[in-house]
Amino acid sequence: MKTKLFTTFLLLLFSYIALGQRYSREFGQIDNSEMTTNSPLAKDAEAIVLFDIGKSYFKEINSTFEVVFERTTRIKILSESGTKWAEVRIPFYHEGLIYENVIDIEATSYNTENGKLVKSHLDISNTTVEKENEFWSVKKFTIPNVKEGTIIEYKYRINSQYLFNFRDWVFQWKIPVVYSEYVTKMIPFYEYQYILQGVNKLDVFESYEDTDIPRSFGTSITYGDRKYHDKVYRFGMKNVPAFGGEEFISSINDYIIKLDFQLSRILHFDGSKTEIVTSWEELVKELLKHEDFGRYINKSERLSSKLINKKDIEGKSELEKFNHVLNYVKNNYQWNYYKDKLTTKTPRKLVQNKEGNSADINLFTIGLLKSIGIEAYPLILSTRDNGKIQKNYPFFHFFNYVVILAKVDGNTILADATEPLIMNNRIPPRCINDKGLVVDKKELSWINLDNKTTSNATTSISIILSNDELYSDIRKIHDEYDAFYYRNKYFQNFNSLKSDISKEGYYLVNSSLVTHNQTEKEAPYIIEYSVKSKPKLVDNKIYIPPFLHESIDNNPLTEKERRYPIDMIYSIRRDFKSSILIPDGYKVSHTPENLNINNELIELDYKTSEANGVVEIIFNYHFKKAVYSSEDFAHIKRYFEEIVKKGNEEIVLEKKM
Question: Which residues contact 466 (CB under 8 A, 6 or more apart)?
């Protein structure tokens, strides 16, 4: 009997302790005991989300509805690097008369000083708004007095007229999350589908009808008062690990644990309904009739005779005609860096202003191509930062970009006229993201956007030791996407190139920097320069890094494991060749071991040779695939370790005795 009573006492005690550690999730309700607690998830984390709670519901405004979104978040800062989580960004949408308002912002930091809890509140006048593009802006603020050990919390509300895309919810952050919850209150006039990504099931899921007094919407002679109850859904997850590793990934939006909502049907008072989600075929038909898509192409085609002189292309091949149009657009119209699949102005306005978004320029180009007899179609896609298309759900909002698909001399070409420095038969890396949908009235088709071409970078280095200094002549040759990257990065920005070359300990020799083919997009991009540096001298030995840190210094893959692909966008090859002139009175005392690896994943070759007073080191590696599966992660990580090691090994010279 005593044993049973003791056991009962322990159970009650443990239950009391457990309940005592279930801290309030109400904003502002926090005490000293919470400042000293840590979750097992916090190990090695810079910060941890204690809770993140959101709620969306409908509110009647002037006989229509808007969606109200409320959020309350509490985070514990665990290290100095974690203080960046006190910088809060709240994105909000605006399009024509559709708008969102961010209101009721409150934010507080909590610190323990002399055993007391000290609060520091955000001054609302310190919030700012930054425009990201023509549709999205960000409300920004930084919570004050934040350091290691601080707990921060903030809350805000967004009033939105944008009913089409109900607010999504992300359960997983780049730091661990102890508890995340999203409550939605749906009304019977709008039906939504939701997609759960990243897990098969949630820790918490409830659905029920709100049994409070029914709500009433509007009055009319025909239909009278509309009485209804909210349908409540509660989604929750506990102890969500941090999302780690962002190297070689299309977008964390493709893999992070989240809920995505989409309006599927509108139910009207008269009993009729409007289907929003139908099929990809219907979506294509609607686009071809859309004023800012299909009709825009037709208008561009009719405008072509005033822009393209047909005599300039008489007798030319289809490829020459295609390049003529692409070069005309690239040389005369400028992208404003806004990504979209719908246009924002008429073709005449584009011709007048010489500037537009990606849809303005690419749909205009399609119209011009069609006018000279080139078979061309729009290809809508989602850029890498926007995430992949989910083909099972015909949602238009998945797409955020449009490029050109042309049939030229029997070949299919993908092109993007927004980028003057890329070859005409290439789309930029931002668009290489799984697949895109061809907008063609004849048939529905999807096109893989992957690129089979390998991008090469060749680095040749010639090193001479003179007066205890290394003088190195360097020549780099880039083609394909590597050439496009450097052209874009350094176009009209020579000082940036000089700054990037002048690494710590390496000094650019005056007037030695030269580039070739800066605007000749079909030719390789070449950089030539000379640097001088101090070699490492130890016990009459000279240590020379033959590749001068032109190879990578660190393994980009740092995770212990990976559950999503390694996406390099395109296959890459790197070739290094270094020649070191052995100075008089010295000999080679050490060269790194040769290495050769060649399999279906990678080819890697490293070898040294010595002849006629010169040490020659050749180091090549080729990642044969653009995308590797998660099963290949351990192998690719190990190959990167070898690349870092071999690329930074040193040649050792010593004085002859």
Answer: 583
Length of the chain: 657
Q: Which long-range contacts (CB under 8 A, 24 or more apart) does 244-248 make?
A: 244/174, 244/558, 244/559, 245/557, 245/558, 245/559, 245/562, 247/556, 247/557, 247/558, 248/556, 248/557, 248/566, 248/567, 248/568
- SS3 letters for 264-333? EEEECCCCCEEECCCCHHHHHHHHHHCCCCHHHHHHHHHHHHHCCCHHHHCCCCHHHHHHHHHHHHHHHC
- Between CA 12 and CA 10 the distance in angstroms is 5
Q: How far is the C-alpha of 560 from the C-alpha of 633, rounded, in Å?
A: 9
Query: Parallel, antiparallel, or unpaired: how do β-strands 602-611 and 541-544 relate?
Result: unpaired
CATH number at residue 253: 2.60.40.3140
Q: Given its phi and psi angles, is residue 536 left (phi above 0), alpha (psi -120 to 50 degrees) or beta?
A: beta
Asked whether residue 251 carries a pLDDT value surpassing 60, the answer given is yes
Does residue 216 register a pLDDT over 80? no
Which pLDDT band holds residue 523 (cuts at 50, 70, 90)? very high
Do 422 and 484 touch, CB atoms closer than 8 A? yes
Asked if residue 220 lies in contact with residue 269, where contact means CB atoms within 8 angstroms, the answer is yes
- In eight-state DSSP terms, residue 281 is H
Reference 540, options 652, 460, 627, 464; nearest CA is 652
Q: What is the DSSP letter of 616?
A: E
Angle, helices 358-371 vs 294-303, to 10°: value is 50
* Beta carbons within 8 Å of 305's beta carbon, 6+ residues apart: 371
Q: Which domain holds residue 636?
A: 455-655
Calculate mean pLDDT across residues 13-17: 36
Instruction: Of 420, 414, 385, give the one whose Cα is nearest residue 400.
Output: 385
Angle at 395 between CA 391 and CA 400, to 5 degrees: 95
Cα 440-406-327 angle, rounded to 5 deg: 135
Query: What pLDDT is attached to residue 585?
Result: 87
d(CA 554, CA 158): 42
For residues 261 and 319, state if they share a domain.
no
pLDDT, greater one: 317 or 35: 317
- Say if residue 262 is in the same domain as residue 285: no
Give tens-digit pLDDT for 75-92. Answer: 999 999 999 999 999 999
Q: Tell me: do 369 and 437 sit in the same domain.
A: yes
The predicted structure's pLDDT at residue 394: 85
Contact 605, 579 (CB under 8 A): no
Neighbours of 447 (CB within 10 A): 16
Q: Is residue 432 part of a domain?
A: yes
Asked whether residue 542 falls in the same domain as residue 637, the answer is: yes
Please say if the pLDDT value at position 290 is more than 70.
Answer: yes
Q: Which residue has the tokens 């006989």?
A: 63
pLDDT single digits (tens) 324-359: 999 999 999 999 999 999 999 999 999 999 999 999
Enumerate residues 6+ apart whose C-beta is below 8 A from 487: 421, 518, 519, 521, 525
Residue 20: pLDDT over 80: no
Question: In the prediction, which pLDDT does 82 show?
Answer: 94
Least-confidence region, from 145-149, 243-247, 352-356:
243-247
